[in-house]
What does this fold into?
Amino acid sequence: AQDNSVTELTQPDSTVSVGVGNWTADRHQQGIYDGMRDKGAYGLLDADITRRDDATGTWLKLKASDLGLDDRSIKGEYLRQGDMGVSLEYSRTPFDNPNTFTTRLLGIGSTTQTVSTNATPGPLREVNLGTKRDMTNLGVYKNLLPGLDFNVSFKNEDKNGDRAWGLRTAAPTQVPSFATDPINSTIRQLEATLNYTTPKLQLSGGYYGSWYDTQNTLATIYTAPASGPSYISLPLDNQAHQLFLNGGYSFTPSTRGTFKLAYTRATQDEHLPTQDVPGLSQAGSPQHLNGEVNTTLMQAGITSRPLKELSLLANLRYYDVHDATPVNRIYTNGPCSTAGNCVDNTPLSYKTLSGKMEGTYRLPDGYSLTAGMDLSNQDRDIPVSNAAGPGGTDTQRLVPFRYHLNENTYRLALRRSLSDTVNGSLTYMLGDRTGGTYGSSAGSLGGVASTYINPINIADRTRNKARMGIDWSPAENLSIQFAIEDSRDNYAHDNPYGVRNGNAQLYSVDASYTLNDKWKLDAWYSFDHNQAKQLNTLTYPTLTKDDNLENTDNSLGIGVRGDVSARVKLGADVQWTQNVSRYQQAINFPQTANFSGNLPDIKSTLLRLKFFSQYAIDKNSDVRFDLIHERWKTNDWTWMFADTTTPFAYGATTDGTTVTANQKQIANFIGVRYIYKFH
Amino acid sequence: AAEPAQAADQPKDLVLKGDAKCTGCHDETDDAKPTMLELHPSVLSIGKTKHGTQADGRTPTCTDCHGESVTHRTFRGSGDQPMTDRNFRKNTKTSVEDRNEACLTCHQGGNRIGWQMSAHGSQDVACTSCHQVHARNDKVRDKLTQTEVCFTCHKEQRAQINKPAHHPIVEGKMTCSSCHNVHGDNPKQLIKASTNETCYTCHMEKRGPFVHNHQPVTEDCGICHQPHGTTIDNLLKSRPPFLCQECHNMNTTHQGQPFGLPRNRASNGSGFSTLATVGRGCVNCHTNIHGSNSTEKTAGDRFVR
It folds into this structure.
């Protein structure tokens, strides 16, 4: 009996569960990924089987999840621990679009689609759109020598289905119309790594290759009354090959150096399909992009603890994304000195040198003080090949570009740890982003004078962020966590328009209380709020709009677990989340008759109640019941007309495809499963 | 418990080589089945894990991680028994560096080479803050339970993953470690050297390069997307047209247009100045916003073809 007991406690165990469940209603929003969007019965089949041969240290594992559902996955593994191993995994990730499309569009699923007209209507029908990702992963591991391991992984992922899409119809109408994106394509990734590990030196080097292989390169959409179809280009095959070497060396028990080296060559050299459409491309424009992006990473760092109380860290990183694609003229409409007349392809390069320094000093009573600094210096490049020449006004693009950016962040943190009752930290960060002069874009490209905007990703910015966390354990069976964060961004007004400032707050409290050996209660509440203010103009300088955007989230979770008896376990979870988005704009010009103007707040609420009960029939088998009550409600008007109740329908000159967002969902689930456990 | 009388009977090893000095006390009668209190987790369950595979010559024994702990093992008095030399309990007095050394002695290689340089490593996170070394199922290594561990500290992300637009994390098809190497020293502790390289592992069609590249797309996907979850379709950080107006502005036709919905189907045809809020927003027309391969005149460079 003693040996049996030890065996039970020390030998890997396995479970297989089989059951059935039923959803009482469709779950348009909550069922987008879990393969249970539609009401009805589902098979529940899971397995976690582990066998180990103790004499040889050989493991056999089989793990299967949701085999009865569309999001099924299964993984098998053979491992002679410390020697070699092989694993094979399959996993499907479905995505079901939560909206319902009522359309006359013809050719869904193909690259030739026809938007019916009122004059020649196609069959009106309801369409559910969705995609599926089917991933297969083969992994092999082999220990070659003591401390030297070889790992190789090959992953193949097929993505199929139809994504909701659209296009602007050709002249003369030029309005949005519904279409579907034929996404069928395959991603392949191969990674082979040699890991060498000794107590002092560790090296990890190898090859990482990745390939994107698409079945479709061009979509042809017929949109009467245009004289011909519209041709929408699709992403083309691309591939990347990377060599990498990472290393670390422990000079002393308290001083360690690390480095990283990687070089990646990514290319896209497929034939450009619009060149095959007569009259669509300028004579002499390239048949292939010959795209090439070379990325170099070099990084070195050192960590040290010269004194018991002091630890130091320093790091230098060079990351160069160089787009070496040759620049070619795509089209010419007239003299290049006139904005928008000459358009080339647009390679963009970024060279970033960043460094980090940090020191932590340990004070008495478990306190430690950390001061740190992150420095970043980025050179950015885009060829300006128009008549204005390099450094001059770019007549091709719409948005100002900065050729140099600096961003420095300074941190100060006080932390207390190793205390029985109260641990925590207080952190303050100051970030400052500046840069060189703006490379101005065209003064009047299509009527645009975009030099007057501060693009959010390159504008001067000051960021202040404070964070406090407290972990309080007033008793051995009670712990409470508090987290408070406040962040404020201020953007400079070098140019008058764009985002002016933003702020974000997070307040959170978690509690865990163990009543006794049998019952435990967890609860948490979280509030977060963020706000951004931005200024834009319709016609400089008189017609402006001042926007105030806010998002507020409240989330609550409660969980209880209990052992009612030696045979019965109970559990329940409550999850409640509410998001409120506000879009306030002040406009100093009249709105058009067709325009709604300001809109009501969007409020979305999710409530999910889960309950389970597990009864031990005998030593090897349980039966488990699950009940779920799920409520989802939103007044999101994204796919509505201005009255915020009528579903949006595409315009009068197209087929009038209607998109219905399913704003309310109430569904209940009941499931029962038999669980068999064995060694 | 104090060293029992049967210590004299030379107890045999139960799980690991040389564990008798520990399992003489921490045997099957002492071993607790998991309880809600989790104050006395199972010791012997390490036998169910890779650390419990004796045939692998690298497998440690109790004292390799916990130290020889002579005062703990030989304690005979009344009162509180001294802890092991290296102790991993919640309120331990063993320093984080010392606790982590127990793991890094064997696990410093591979993806953990940069641990000391990482945000977690440099902020005194212990390996055992996240890992349950003795447990048959280490929560943080199970895709269905990993987020419970990460959300112990990352509260903002806990709220974000339940928003309407999210990656399939709640559904168990992705985990935090699908994108993050929490032991590594990449920016944001990502699995790859940059945000874009990480996103391309699943969204490789966005890699291009394209004939017409959209500048922020080539720089950082995170300029427009919040990968942990948002209330706006496609994980956008802000709703069109506001998102696009962070960089695009001022045109007598439409770029600086106000926010609002068309009143009816007929008004959809009144020009594109009313259609940057409804449905897919600006992308209603600018279909190929991530980049275009079209050579068609005045089409590809505005991402409409």
